[in-house]
Amino acid sequence: MTNIKLAVFDMAGTTVDEDNMVYKTVQKVINQEGFDLSLAQVLAQGAGKEKYQAIIDILTAYTQANPVEEIAGRAFDRFKPTLEAVYNEAEIKGFEGVEALFAQLKAHGIKVVLNTGYDLKTATKLLQKLNWKIGEQVDALITADDVTQGRPHPDMIQKAMQLFGIADPQQVLKAGDSEIDILEGKNAHCGLTIGVLSGAQTKAQLQTVQPDYILERLTDLPAILQLS
Q1: What SS3 state is found at 74?
Q2: Which InterPro entries match (predicted)?
C-alpha cells in the first residue's frame, strides 16, 4: 500500500486532452509580433509555465526581441482573449480513464488536486467544459493566480499540502507532461515525480530532469502505487 496522501496533477496534456491548444495559441500571439517560431520551440521553452513567463522565456531563447518585456506584454494581452475564443469553440475532454483514476485514488484516501500554469479564469472554464467539480471529481484546483511564484517553484504544491494538512512532502506525488512539472515536484521534495507522454514533451526531454517514472499515460499510475 502506498504512503502517498496527495496527488497533484497538471491539467493540459496530463489530465486534460486539448491537443496543445494553449501552446498553439502562445505560438500564434508570438508570431503575430513578426516572428516565425515553431510549436516545438514553444513547447520546449514554454510548457507548464505561467503564460506571461512562458512568452518571455520563448522570446529570450529564440529571438532577438527588444525590449522583450514590451513585446511579451503585447503578445500576452492577446493571449487570454484568443485562448478564450478557442476554448469556447473547442471540444475539451479528459483523457480516457482519468475520471476513474481520480475515483480510485480518492477511494484509497488520496487527495486529488489539479494545478496549472493557467490563470483561474482559464482553468475554471476548462473544468466547466469537462464537467469536473471541486469536491466531486477533484478535491482542489490551484492556479498561477494562487501563488506569487509559479513553476518550477514549489509554491502551488505547498499550497495544496497546506489545504489538506499534509506536512511531509514524501506523501505527495506530482505528475505532469513537461520538464517544469517534474522540477516543481522535485523543488517541493515530493516523494514521487512522474512524467507522462500524453502531452507537451517527449521522453528524451522529460528524462533530462530525471523523474522517478515516465508513463505513457496518467492512467498507468495505479500499478506504480500498487493500488488494488
Answers
A1: helix
A2: HAD-like_hydrolase_sf, HAD-like_sf, HAD-SF_hydro_IA, HAD_sf, PGP-like_dom2, PhnX-like
